[in-house]
Amino acid sequence: MRETNGSKAFRVIVVSLLTVFTVVPIYVMTTSAMKPLSDVQGPFTWWPTSVTFAPFIDMWKTVPLASYFVNSVIVAGAATILSLVIAVFAAYAISRYRFRGRSVFSTTILSTQMFPGVLFLLPLFLIFVNVNSAVGIQLVGTRAGLVVTYLTFSLPFAIWMLAGYFDGIPRDLDEAAKVDGNGPMGALWRVVLPAARPGLVAVAIYSFMTSWGEVLFASVMTTDANRTLAVGLQLYSTQTNVYWNQIMAASLVVSIPVVVGFLLLQRNFVAGLTAGAVK
Amino acid sequence: MAVATAPTITTEAPPASPPKRRRPRPSGWWLPYALLAPAIVFELVIHVIPMVTGIWMSFLKLTKAFISNWGNAPVTGLKNYQVALDFNGAVGSALLQSFLVTCAFTVLVVGISWTLGMAAAVALQGKFFGRGFFRTLFLVPYALPMYAGIIAWKFMLQKDTGAINHFVYDNLGVGGEKPFWLIGNNSFAAVVVVAIWRLWPFAFLMLMAGLQSIPTDVYEASAVDGAKPFRQWRSITLPMVRPVNMVLLLVMFLWTFNDFNTPFVLFGNAQPPAGDLISFHIYNASFLTWNFGSGAAMSVMLLLFLLLVSGIYLIVLNRRSQRA
Questions:
Q1: How far out from the chain centre does Cα A69 lie?
Q2: Which residues in chain A touch residue B215, judged by CB atoms under 8 angstroms apart?
Q3: Least Cα separation, residue A70 to chain B (angstroms)
Q4: How far away is chain B from the Cα of A119, in angstroms, using its nearest Cα?
């Protein structure tokens, strides 16, 4: 494409403004994580008076951050794996078979995407509380209970995305696999899944990211035993001091795994998202 | 199930026109149902049952005393809805205020995020040095865990120790008293900016993917015909990304209207009326007073509103694309 001066100026302005907008909070987070406590309690400074890495050490002691970290890994990981496994079979059925109830099922899946989280939060909480008083299975305050609530958003998304992705894989490949003596499951396992790898990666990233950052369910369904990072990070501010430097350090550390993972796999993510969304 | 002999002989399900007589079922007819079974079970547990329960709850007087034994909660019929919709009462007027704030919030956040995403996608459409770097950089706010970015903003928006007031009043030297950003009317601006910061990269991501599918020779041809960049954008880019836009705008509308994280992390237990988004409002109405019946009624009305708007949106779009 040929470039005019106007479009070059447009690019420079847009990119500069958006870079500042994007970077400032990240910059503040990073530099504040390296400030002594007195710095973050006084007037703001753009650079620490003395650079210290103490917040990165103290943050593990002020609140039990390590246990929140473990809880987040387990809950987000379990929700991701569970929704991926269930979704692979469901998406294969929707994409490759025509059967009664197919459109009812896929419409239900799609429409749950638009439902507000609070709509499920109240009944699920009530159901969990009453299951506990009826049969004695504790769900509020357990990781298993939290995983179930996370499926409310990750499962329908996974089914929808994967069905779209499977649709993009030519059926001839399935047929070829069947000619080679594979059953439908063999075709799924040997042909469709390998071809759908970018889609699987995209769905896995998305559901891990959303579960890792989920706040609504976590704020109600967690107690000390299963508290995740999303809620745990806010506890630095309920102490008598607000340890802003430690909050920033902790935010930075808990962000790194997902940000790095996302940026490494973003091409897969984009490819999977567009293939699934734009049928 | 006895009909099925061996799954290996299974053919694909009947093509577009299914046979009239359904009696002799094709072998393996049960396979799609077997594949769907786990998903159906989970869908029942996580969506269908809670949904039905939620609707039922909205007709109950489900206050604190009844939460752990819901069987005893008295049925009140439409009472919860009447209280929520009585805009002269305290509950109803607060709900209406929250609804209006959310509408304004959604229009601003979706509109500005889309504009920024489109501007960035167009700016990064041509090749230039550092393009890959900026593309990755712009995605960082979206990749950050939601609460981490919002917490950074919360720190920046503090009155005495925050970066925003420091920049405006100390660096730029604007005179006057430093304002509160997370209390009072300023909290609306705060929640809007933070939500845009988090959402625009998603619009950018989707629009960028949409722009990639436009062949460059279309632009070259139109440039030969003397089309200026803005004209090209209006006549080529915009129509070509229309399928992406249709999905993108709906998704952004739903996410933004239901946004809970931004106000929750930003304001915590304080609820400034100017930043009292609807999900946050319902959450607080339910868990601070433990009046679940009332909260359920409000959620059901929220859902009806979202269904209505999405439905109209899709119908209008379908009409238009049929005419086109």
A1: 15
A2: none
A3: 16
A4: 5
pLDDT value at residue A102: 87
Mean pLDDT of chain B: 85
- For the domain made up of B89-155+192-290, the CATH class stated in words is mainly alpha
Q: What digits encode the pLDDT tens for the residues B146-171? A: 899 999 999 999 888 888 888 888 88
**Structure tokens given for B286:** 């339910």
- Which residues does B187 contact at the CB level (< 8 Å), separation at least 6? B181, B266, B267, B272, B274, B275
DSSP class per residue in B250-265 = HHHHHHHHT--HHHHH
pTM: 0.87
CATH number at residue A65: 1.10.3720.10
**A18 occurs within a structural domain:** no
What's chain B's length in residues?
324
Question: Which residues 33-92 on chain B approach chain A with CB closer than 8 angstroms?
Answer: 33, 35-36, 38-40, 42-43, 45-51, 53-54, 57, 62, 67-70
The CA radius of gyration of chain A, in Å to the nearest whole number, is 23
What count of other Cβ atoms lies within 10 Å of the Cβ of residue A114? 18
Domains contained in chain A, number? 1
pLDDT over 70 percentage in chain B: 92
Cα dihedral sign for A163, A115, B35, B20? negative
Has residue A187 got a pLDDT over 70? yes
DSSP annotation of B60 reads B
What count of residues does chain A have?
279
Binary contact (B161, A87; C-beta < 8 A)? no
Strands (E) across A187-255 are located at none
Residue A37 placed within a domain: no
Range A67-80 burial, b when 16+ CB lie within 10 A, else e: bbbebbeebbbbbb
Across the interface, do B161 and A244 touch by the CB < 8 Å criterion? yes
Q: B213 vs chain A: nearest CA distance in angstroms?
A: 11
Residue A67: closest CA among A210, A228, A209: A228
